[in-house]
Amino acid sequence: MDDDRRPTLRDTNLGKLSRERFDVLVLGGGINGAVSAASLAARGARVALVDRGDFAGATSQESSNLAWGGIKYLETYEMRLVRELCRARNKLLRCYPSIVHEIRFYTSHPRRFRHARWKLIMGAWLYWAIGGFSTRRPRLLSLGDIAREEPTIEMDGLDGGFEYSDAYLHDNDARFVWSFVRSALDNGCVAANYVEALRSTRENDEWVTLARDVISGLEVPLRSRLLVNACGPYADRVNASMGLRTAHRHVFSKGIHLVVDCLTPNRRVLTFFADDGRLFFVVPMGQKTCVGTTDTPVSGPDVKVTPEDRRFVLDNINKRLRLPRALSERDIIAERCGVRPLVVEAGANADPDWMQLSRKHVIETNAGQRHITIFGGKLTDCINVGEEICAEAQRLGIALPYAGRLWYGEPHAAVREQYFHQALLMRLDDLAAPPGAERLSTRLWRRYGAEALGMLEAVRRDPRMAEVIIETSEYRRCELDEAARREMVVKLEDFLRRRSKISLVVRREDIRRAPGLREACAILFGRDIDAKIAEYFDGTPAAG
Ligand SMILES: Cc1cc2nc3c(=O)[nH]c(=O)nc-3n(C[C@H](O)[C@H](O)[C@H](O)COP(=O)(O)OP(=O)(O)OC[C@H]3O[C@@H](n4cnc5c(N)ncnc54)[C@H](O)[C@@H]3O)c2cc1C
User: Fold this and answer.
1) Residue 189 Cα to ligand 1 middle (Å)
2) Three-state DSSP string of 54-75
3) Which residues have a Cβ under 8 Å from the Cβ of 260 and sit 6 or more positions away?
4) What are the φ/ψ torsions at residue 109 (nearest 5 degrees)?
5) What is the pTM of this model?
């Protein structure tokens, strides 16, 4: 911390991490670590959460952004998994009405596909039934329907299609994860990003984890009664570093997405079967489109997009859409790439059948050592993971004095009503917005919940707080202010890629040229503006 500025939330939390003893230390702030911390903290445990990078900086920022019941697992007859995922999806739809939205999957069926069209349509009806009929009903699509409703689809080789419902995250996976980290912080969790767990040992019936502040290089011991390893695809490495043997392990499947300009004006997911027979999606992302994904077995979690990956996605999309001109690498605005951590038994075949591998999560507890590992899973299942971690923590003797407390969901309807009423009275939505942008009141509520009321006050005090700050993005000055105060932004990338989705929808060169970029950095960091910009664009580390 500099002498001439007030401590940040992270500075304060770093101090607390080294001084206090915790009931639970959660390693890894992806979705599974974030929900673990949020649920335990709300129910009264003393919790710490660290991530060696930024929260959601690994797998949880690379998903397809779908909250879905896993229709494709019907093919492998995983009825139980589909039922559980459908229930999890329905719960997200109910509890996060502003954030998780039902969306139609508009699916084309190739004439010579491995399953006949009637079979897939029966599958869609079964899926609807397994999901408790809670979404809109599936619909059969004739060739005429497709030609009329989605003329951008290449009709050659199709015999029709069908439409069914699932859900997607309006503001991206990483922002969703952040909402759980923020709620954990609100309930007293001591969380810090850029803190790496180096190794953990048992001393006098507690865990001592040696952790390094990645920014300053300082090492501190963290003390906890229980350790939760939520390091996703890195969980096996972390367990190995502490000599812990588990009954499960991960294998990895790489998936990439490409973000391009909008491919269809309709707000729906176009669904195809790619050349490898797998489902392939064209998903709306703000005013852009996200296309993918791939499913390639890889040996470890550190992956990059290769030219072959790009070619696969571009070729598939060019074959399946009638575009004014074929998409090429020049059209790519941003890329997403990660591995699915898939759980297998520790002694399982080294070369498993990838199509048959389940996407379910497994929570493995070592009661003697008071240690829990979360293996595998999906964003969709996050509420169940949070509940299961609470149950396991209690079983291991961690007291949860508020065990029945609800730890997820949007603010109460009365708060929402008050917010929208105030926004209406002050004519918030009359303020100038970039072309095609959604209503400001809706966007602020979705992203900030009850905090959006404070933003209305900020705009009342100073109307400039509602001005767009990075041109070509929708982000307003009051949002930067909020990010600086409450969102633990350490690097410019944390804001551009995860707290917001600017770097996914605005080209890198346009961000670099944006006149508002320096002001954004001034708000976020106060000083070090050049260093933070250089760190983002050139990879030169900024001083701690
Ligand atoms: C291409 C793709 C598409 C997907 N699509 C969907 C989808 O549409 N819907 C869905 O529900 N799911 C989807 N998934 C699955 C979902 O994204 C993952 O299951 C989920 O994000 C895993 O979260 P996690 O918290 O376990 O792991 P991560 O998000 O990887 O989090 C682990 C964290 O641990 C941290 N860490 C590692 N080592 C250490 C250490 N030593 N000290 C401290 N921290 C450490 C990492 O920095 C990381 O942030 C998809 C996955 C992929 C790859």
Assistant:
1) 21
2) CCCCCHHHCCCCEECCCHHHHC
3) 288, 289, 291, 327, 331, 332, 333
4) -120, 115
5) 0.96
Is residue 166 within 8 Å of 68, Cβ to Cβ? yes
pLDDT digits 0-9 by tens, 34-51: 999 999 999 999 999 999
Q: Which residue has the tokens 């633990």?
A: 488
Distance from C-alpha of 152 to C-alpha of 203, rounded to nearest angstrom: 63
Residue 2 has pLDDT above 80, yes or no: no
Distance 173 CA to ligand 1 centre (A): 10
26 alpha carbon to ligand 1 midpoint, in Å?
Answer: 14
- Name the DSSP letter for residue 96: -
Centroid of ligand 1 to alpha carbon of 148 (angstroms) = 39
How many C-beta atoms lie closer than 10 Å to residue 254's C-beta? 22
By most ligand atoms within 8 Å of CB, the mutation choice from 212, 378, 491 for ligand 1 is: 378
Contacts of residue 510, defined as CB under 8 A and 6 or more positions apart, other chains included, come to 472
* Cis omega (within 30 of 0) for bond into 442: no
Listed as own residue / partner, the contacts of 350-357 with beta carbons closer than 8 Å and 24 or more positions apart are: 352/251, 354/253, 354/295, 354/297, 355/76, 356/76, 357/251, 357/253
User: Quick one: which H or E segment has residue 178?
Assistant: helix 173-186
| Residue position matching structure tokens 């004739």 | 142
Report how far ligand 1's centroid is from the alpha carbon of 123 (Å).
29
Residue 257 Cα: closest atom of ligand 1: 1
Rounded Cα–Cα distance for residues 500 and 245 (Å) = 38
Name 228's bridge partners: 26, 372
Classified as helix, coil or strand, 429 is: helix
Q: How far is the CA of 345 from the centre of ligand 1 (A)?
A: 19
Looking at residue 365, its amino acid is T
Binding pocket residue ranges, ligand 1, CB within 6 Å: 27-33, 50-53, 57-60, 62-66, 196-197, 230-234, 238, 255, 293, 338-340, 377-380
Q: Which atom of ligand 1 is nearest to the CA of 253?
A: 53
**What pLDDT score was predicted for residue 1?**
47
Q: Which residue type, as a one-letter code, is found at position 440?
A: L
CA dihedral in degrees (177, 178, 181, 182; nearest 10)? -140
Per-residue pLDDT tens digits for 277-315: 888 999 999 889 999 999 999 999 999 999 999 999 999
Give pLDDT tens digits for 319-341: 999 999 999 999 999 999 999 99
Q: Largest Cα–Cα distance of the chain, in whole Å?
A: 72
Residue 349 has pLDDT above 80, yes or no: no
What element of type H or E holds 228?
Answer: strand 219-229
